[in-house]
Amino acid sequence: MDHTLKKTSKLTKRNRIIAYTFLLPNLLGFFVFIFFPVIASFFMSFTSWNGFGKIEFVGLENFIDLAQDKGFRISFVNTLLFTLISVPITLFLAIVVAVLLNKGVKFIKIFRTAVFLPYVTAPVAVAVVWQLIFNPSMGPINGFLSSVGIDNPPGWLSSPDWSLISVSIVFIWHNIGYYMIIYLAGLQNVPDSLYEAADIDGAGPIVKFFKITIPMLSPVIFFTSIIALIQSFKVFDFVYVLTEGGPGRSTNVLVYSIVNTAFERYEYGYASAMALILFLVILVISYIQFQGQKKWVNY
């Protein structure tokens, strides 16, 4: 009996060593590239440093300056507007596409691949293509609008009124496929008996969508809403390639402002303070979502 226990104990230790060996590269990467930089950024937010000289502790001075910084307020408002535009539309269109593809239409694999393909394409490449599409003089969108009699089509990326909407369109187009795949997986768990019962009661497709599909997908919607919100607050690549924060400051979102402050103005402490504010905003909104999900998510 003792011999069997010792053998089992040795086998357990051996399995643990093997498991930790496989986990070690990922854990090292996490600590080196995520955990330690986050901790360093937190302490850096209370300092003033240009990357070369002496690090000076300034306490809450960076946060006081942020409260009075008009540029920071503009980037914060732009980020909120971008989130309010892009997240609901992205999730709604992803659900609609997923429901349509779940009906068993012909060539479903081709359609599913076509919708998902933009997500696996590099954001920079996507942004460059959309730059050509939005071109005010040679782009196909304005060419079509002019052909149907619209004399002054929007400037899209060159117009302060349209630039943020234009970036949102690219963001939505790029991300629909990812959330569509998640919703498709969620739809596989919705019992067909619910739709059959609704058919017997005479319910139409719209009633079934809002009374069956949405409630049954509520856990998936909750998950995707958190992911999409975080993703929208972190948007940078599309802004950097499409508009560089312009025209004016119309697309100068928080992450673009953070990168610009750190790597062009070399104000690492100030940029770290902005990053900490961004983290706290996402944390608070995520907490509110977790508290609110108790009232509408059905498990």
Summary keywords:
single chain, 299 residues, mainly alpha, MetI-like fold, 2 strands, 74% helix, transport, MetI-like_sf, transmembrane, Sugar ABC transporter permease
Description:
The chain is mainly α and 299 residues long. The chain has one domain (75-296): Orthogonal Bundle (MetI-like fold). The chain is 74% helix and 1% strand. It has helices at 2-44, 61-68, 70-101, 108-120, 123-133, 140-147, 163-187, 192-200, 205-216, 218-233, 237-242, 254-263, 268-296, and strands at residues 47-48, 56-57. A two-stranded antiparallel ribbon has the order 1-2. The model has no long low-confidence stretch (mean pLDDT 89).
SSE inventory with pairings:
Layout (H helix, E strand, L loop, with lengths): L1 H43 L2 E2 L7 E2 L3 H8 L1 H32 L6 H13 L2 H11 L6 H8 L15 H25 L4 H9 L4 H12 L1 H16 L3 H6 L11 H10 L4 H29 L3
Antiparallel strand pairs: 1-2
Helix pairs in contact: 1-13, 3-7, 3-10, 4-7, 7-10, 10-13, 12-13
What is the name of the CATH class? Mainly Alpha
Give the second-level CATH assignment, the architecture. Orthogonal Bundle
Average predicted local confidence, pLDDT:
89
* Regions with little confidence, pLDDT below 50 for 5+ residues: none
What number of structural domains do the residues give?
1
Q: How much strand?
A: under 5%
- The largest beta-sheet arranges its strands as 1-2
What class do helices, strands and sheet pairing give?
Answer: mainly alpha
The total strand number stands at 2
Shape: globular
Q: Helix and strand succession?
A: HEEHHHHHHHHHHHH
> What's the N-to-C terminus distance?
45 Å
Radius of gyration: 25 Å
Question: How many H/I helical runs?
Answer: 13
Helix content: over 70%
> By CATH's scheme, which homologous superfamily applies?
MetI-like
CATH fold node name: MetI-like fold
